[in-house]
Amino acid sequence: MQVLFGSTWFFSLPFALFFFFVLLPSFLSAVTEEEASLIVRRQLLTFPENGDSPDNVEYEIDIKETFANKRLRRAYIGLQAWKKAMYSDPFNTTGNWVGPYICAYNGVFCSPALDNPDMSVVAGVDINEGDIDGYLPVELGLMNDIALFHVNSNRFCGVIPQSFSRLTILHELDLSNNRFVGPFTKVVLSIPALKYLDLRFNDFEGKLPPELFNKDLDGFFLNDNRFHSDLPENFGNSPVSVVVLANNKFTGCIPKSIGKMGNTLNEINLLNNDFAGCIPTEVSSLTNLTVFDAGLNSFVGDMNNRFCPMKFLEILDLSSNSLKRLVPEKVCKLPKLENFTFSDNFFNEESHLCVPSSNSNTYFDDSRNCMPSRPTQKTTKVCTPVVNNPVDCNKSKCVALPISSKPWSPPDTTKTPTQLQLLRPRNLDHNAANTEIATADITSITTNSIFPFY
């Protein structure tokens, strides 16, 4: 299942709008700031000094139940500690988390161990959309046979325990749509097998560590948090196929190292940040790109031929920036292009192939620019100072425009749905997962595998 418009969607656009503006806020607003702070304090009081569980913690707990093997016993300790750290479970998701038969627990999936096919272990946890209120205890680090951990669309608060570094074969970590706080959770960088990281719709803040972009991930989703920093210069070292940074406060220029991502990067979403400067010419190396969304930022200069080599590009959104001069004909003729939105800029010339038309298979939006022959454009008074002011990209500063100066007006999402397209479902390739986690068939043990919403 792809994010793109030409593919099948899980939901219709009206449902997507309903989810993001009605359902999702109801999830997140169910816990007040005061309640969230209280849960964080409770969590921190349970943490050992280093935030990790002692090596012998499993032997210090007296359990009467008997288990088929020690690994199931360890998982039982982790799950029972987690249940105690839940303060509200409105759908009774964990109602049957009782007794030693943990493979029958709701949302818990077992599989033969990788190193012993005759031994059953807990291979994954998926309690997505449970609306559960609580925190993650350090004892979850005892569940070091799990390959996936999905808790999206709940009300978990607090921080990610350091004990998650013990989850050595964890492949998918989905913490999206919760109330996690603090700086970027560096513990995830110490999980060696991690490929998919989803932290969307939380309250993480601060800078992204450069180490994130040296990690062998296939996709990371950080949109709708409170991150605020320039992207590190090693941004292009990342081998990911999907990057979603939308709706934060990232600043500065796109690092020129982005050109190194040409062999792997398929989709990038920078929507609604404070990026500035010229879009680097190095983006022309991203020849496998299908989605480029840089709307609602402060990019300047002209397009030149940066996007012309992208023969697979389907979605291009440059709306609400300060780009100007010519919209290249070659871009509008790209063979796979389905949606090109360049509204609310300062373009003053475009090819006839870029003009919106009901006869075109491609959706174009050229409104609120500086094209005298087109309707719904900016006034000459607004356009002239920008269009006549040359931009030297070699000297352009990576500083965003003041909010009052940004050429932005609220997007018409009924006409321009591209600004939601990377906040939508996407199934990533599980071939790598099935190779590395051969006995934990991720796609069969959960119906909500790999980021059901973003």
From TrEMBL:
<keyword id="KW-0677">Repeat</keyword>
<dbReference type="InterPro" id="IPR032675">
    <property type="entry name" value="LRR_dom_sf"/>
</dbReference>
<keyword id="KW-0325">Glycoprotein</keyword>
<dbReference type="Pfam" id="PF00560">
    <property type="entry name" value="LRR_1"/>
</dbReference>
<keyword id="KW-0379">Hydroxylation</keyword>
<dbReference type="InterPro" id="IPR051582">
    <property type="entry name" value="LRR_extensin-like_regulator"/>
</dbReference>
<keyword id="KW-0134">Cell wall</keyword>
<keyword id="KW-0964">Secreted</keyword>
<dbReference type="InterPro" id="IPR001611">
    <property type="entry name" value="Leu-rich_rpt"/>
</dbReference>
<keyword id="KW-0732">Signal</keyword>
<protein>
    <recommendedName>
        <fullName>Cell wall hydroxyproline-rich glycoprotein</fullName>
    </recommendedName>
</protein>
